[in-house]
Amino acid sequence: MKKDYEFRPKILGFLCNWCCYAGADLCGISRYQYPPNMKVIRLMCSGRIDPQFIFKSFLNGMDGVFIGGCWPGECHYITEGNYLAISMIQVCKKLMALIGLNPERLRLEWVSASEGVRYAEVITDLDDTLKGLGPLGKGEDIDPETLKFRIETVMSLLPYIKLVERERMRVPLETEAAYHEYFASSEFEQMFQELIADKLAVCQIMALIREKPRSSAELSNLLGLPSSEISRHVNIAARQGMCRFDESKNLIAAAYHQDADESVAEAAAEVKPAALGNKKIDQIIDTYKGNPGALIHVLMEVQSENQWLPKEILTLISEKLDVPLGRVMQIASFYKTFRLTPKGRYEIHVCNGTSCHLRGSERLIASVQEMIGIRPGEMDADSKFSLETGNCLGCCTLGPEMIIDGAHHGRISPDKAQALLKNCA
Ligand code: FES
């Protein structure tokens, strides 16, 4: 008689050399039974885990990923790698939920070298959980093509996500419980939404419209996002010069879509000497003509001359330096130093580095936003204020800190900020 097919999840395990791997060894030597369907990769510390390992595992068909480390406080390195692992795993779980994967497919556990039984228990438990969830993608009702697209877009954003996790989301807490509390807080949720989820949505939209121009309804269907969200993300991308709206066809297209040579040509056609009208800028660009390696340098020099980088100038830089416009946009939109929107008469900068963050900069940013009616990266309709937030302004003991037109103001409360902004004539 034909036997029923039994699903055996494929699991990839990353074990810390000093504790979990030794625990696995003990488990084997002691002949404890546990599911044999996990392949193991040994790392020197659980803190070495990189989100690239996790998403690549899923992309290559793993149904679950296991990370095993030393118990908190017992990491063998002064960096306390297992706390870094908690932070990274939490961000990865949020990303998984965002792309529709069940976060339970990723498990972080602590197993010491003497806990052979515990190793057998956690692997058995993970195997049971994955059996309940079913194969990757199928269990979530996502077709393989969509799943591949979603994981690949996350992977393309990983360098940025790792930077954000390290600079903005990693907080010096001393207990595991404090970490879990922080990652469950609304403060983290908001930060994740603004810094990662929105960026990922823009990234997905760009990947889709790079294939071919699409309507807002089509994007909404493909990404499972409401149209209002699509419009919001498209507006952000358009403000940064990454996409454009073809009104005659009612389609959204990538600004530098190779297919749409016309779009690049159109953009180039818009470059009239009058639009630039600044001999100094022409001079800077001409100095580095045909030298693609000088791209960042040119962008910095041009920005210091013009205060911001309009699309016309970026197109000109692309042509003169012989760098594809897509690459120019990639660099200009990746580094916070570069401004793709004009500045207001008063440039407000609120520090959101770790120290200022812990001293309440989030509240300060929210109240400044409310007072002047714009979000970070925007300029108000009267061109009076523009608002920026940044990582560290170097005055951590004075946090939360705010700069208005180059003047530093320390220990700023929302009330003080209101008084200062009222003085801006
Ligand atoms: Fe084991 Fe760091 S050495 S988690």
**Helix-strand sequence:** EHEHEHEHHHHHHEEHHHHHHEHHEEEH
Pick out the low-confidence regions. Answer: 257-275
Distinct ligand kinds = FE2/S2 (inorganic) cluster
Number of helices: 18
CATH topology of the largest domain: Rossmann fold
Structural notes for this entry:
The structure is a single chain. This protein is α/β, with parallel strands linked by helices and 425 residues long. The chain folds into four domains: 11-160, Rossmann fold, CATH 3.40.50; 206-269, Orthogonal Bundle (Arc Repressor Mutant, subunit A); 279-334, no CATH class; 346-422, Glutaredoxin. Helices cover 51% and strands 12% of the residues. The protein has 18 helices and ten strands. It has helices spanning 20-29, 51-59, 81-98, 116-133, 144-169, 176-183, 186-211, 216-223, 227-239, 261-269, 273-276, 279-287, 295-306, 311-321, 325-334, 354-358, 361-372, 414-422, and strands at 11-16, 38-43, 64-69, 106-110, 243-246, 251-254, 346-351, 385-390, 402-404, 407-409. The chain has a four-stranded parallel beta sheet, with helices on both faces. It has a four-stranded mixed beta sheet with strand order 8-7-9-10, with helices on one face. Strand 9 (402-404) and strand 10 form a beta hairpin. The longest helix is centred in the middle third of the chain and has 26 residues, at 144-169. Mean pLDDT is 84; it is low at 257-275. The structure holds FE2/S2 (inorganic) cluster. The site of FE2/S2 (inorganic) cluster (FES) has 13 residues, from helix 3.
